[in-house]
Amino acid sequence: MPEPTGPKQSAAPAVAPQSPPLWLLAELTYKCPLQCPYCSNPLDFADHGEELTTEQWIDVFRQARKMGAAQLGFSGGEPLVRRDLEQLIAEGRKLGYYTNLITSGIGLNADRIAAFREAGLDHIQISFQASDETVNNMLAGSDKAFQQKLKMAREVKAQGYPMVLNFVTHKHNIDRIDRIIELCVELEADFVELATCQYYGWAYENKESLLPTRAQLERAERITNEYRDKLAAAGNPIKLIFVTPDYYEERPKKCMNGWGEIFLTVTPDGTALPCHSARMLPIEFPNVKDSSLQHIWRDSFGFNHFRGDDWMQEPCRSCDEKELDLGGCRCQAYMLAGDMNAADPVCSKSPHHQTILDARAAAENSGEDSPITFRNERNSRVFARG
Ligand code: FES
Question: Which of 14, 82, 345, 370 is the most exposed place for a label (fewest CB within 10 A)?
Fold first, then answer.
């Protein structure tokens, strides 16, 4: 991890947000029965404090809703680990949120899906690691994971939910994209996100073994497009969404649709973040146990620092494209350039763009047998000890 190069934390004048936090992501827990090596949770997750209580979560939902939040996502870790999940869903729904459960499916069963339905849950998304049972279970770290996911995907659909599947693709599964799509068709999925791994958290640690080559990526995109056309022609309503990794772009994305513009993440211990990875930055982010969400969103240093463009350095400051991408991703700038105020190195104008070119070159030379650091408590404690 690069050395912090952050600014002093002060009660800097706020750039008042024009919009409320429309999307609230409640990371209920860092506990997870699986060990995916591309998890976006912090490397030192094992070292973070007590989880918020049921009452504290409900209070967060209430405050955010009052500010205008409309979507409530439950994620983790694995949110099913929380025994109060049904109650949290019911409260969220009562407050008028559109509610979304993002899960691995491990810990799910037919009764629990029925209870979620009863509580008013709107949407369930199940993630798979691969279409192949062996690869799926190797990445997940559980020899029962694949069969459980298949069963739960079918059960979710049987109970009247649309089937929404997520496959994170990388070097270990991207060459089987055709099989992944076939599996989704067999399962009668409605929406499938084929999201090429982005390199944050554990994925950043494992990027040498996960980043596909450009040829692999282009092949996967071409095959997805062919399936999309073929399935549409056959009247299959399945929606295939293909997400490319930043590392093969020449311009960065407008991360989170703008810092502190729409997204608000609350971590298991109550830390409030403008994006799920921001915890790595040398900024002290506020906690919902100490401050109101209104104060956090409008007035805190952490949420205001990257609003507007005063913070930008060259080449972003004078760039005629800066409104399009707002300098790209702050977390990526910190990871790759060691400076959270720098241009996102994905941008070919960045003086640190070579780091991206080096990663692409490394992907050409690495094989599927490159070592993997799995996301688990033991490895997390090693990172936490530094
Ligand atoms: Fe944190 Fe992009 S993931 S700003």
Answer: 14
